[in-house]
Amino acid sequence: MRLAAVALAAAAALLACAPSAAAANGWWTFNRNSNLNSTLSWKWTYPPSPAQYSHSWRAGSGSSTDECRRGEGWLPGGWYAQWGHWNHYGGSAVKGRVWWLQDKYCYDGITKRVELFIHSEETAENGQTCTSAWDDPTCWEREADYYSLGCIKLARPSPVANFPNDLGSAHSYYHGYGGSSEHGDLPNDAYELYVFS
Length: 197
Fold this sequence. Notes:
It is built from 2 helices and 12 strands; from the N terminus they run αββββββββββαββ. The protein is of the alpha+beta class. It has one domain (2-196): Beta Barrel (L,D-transpeptidase catalytic domain-like). The protein has a 10-stranded mixed sheet with strand order 4-12-1-2-3-10-9-6-5-11, covered by helices on one side. The chain has a two-stranded antiparallel ribbon with strand order 7-8. It is globular and about 50 Å long. The termini are far apart. Mean pLDDT is 90; it is low at 3-18.
C-alpha cells in the first residue's frame, strides 16, 4: 500500500511539472524547396525554456518560384503576421480551414502579394466535392493539387485519393501547442510565420 502511495505521489509530481499547452508559444515556418514539395512546420517553446519542438508537413506554394508573380509565385520570404484563422471560411477561391496571412511585398519592393493563406482544397464545411475527372477546387485528388495561386497548401484525404490529413494535423498542432485558441480576425502578431528565402 505504501509503495502505491509513493508511486501515485511521483506521478502527480511529474504531471505538475509538465508544461501545459496553454503555456506554449508557437509559430509557423515554411521552407521553400519546390512548388510541389516544400515544408511547413509548426514550432513551439515553453518559455522561459529555450528548447524548441516542431512538427512538419509536406506543402506546396504557387506554380512559379518567382515570388513577384501575382497569383503564381510562391510566398515571398520573411516574417508574416497572421491576420485570422477560420474553420469554415467561405471565400471565392479558398474555403474551409484557413489561416489568413498579411499582404507582403516581394523582393522587388514594388509588387505587393495579397490574399495569402495556409489552406487545402475543401468545402467551407470541411468536406470534399469530387465531381469531375480532372480538378475540382474543393477536392484533393492528385499531386498537382499542391500547386496554388501563391498560398501555402496542405494535403487532406478525399473520397478519390488517399493523401494524408496534413491539414487536420496542422490544425491540431496549432491549437494544441501555442497557437491562438480564437477563430476569426486575430490581433496582428508580426512573428507568426517565417518563410525562408
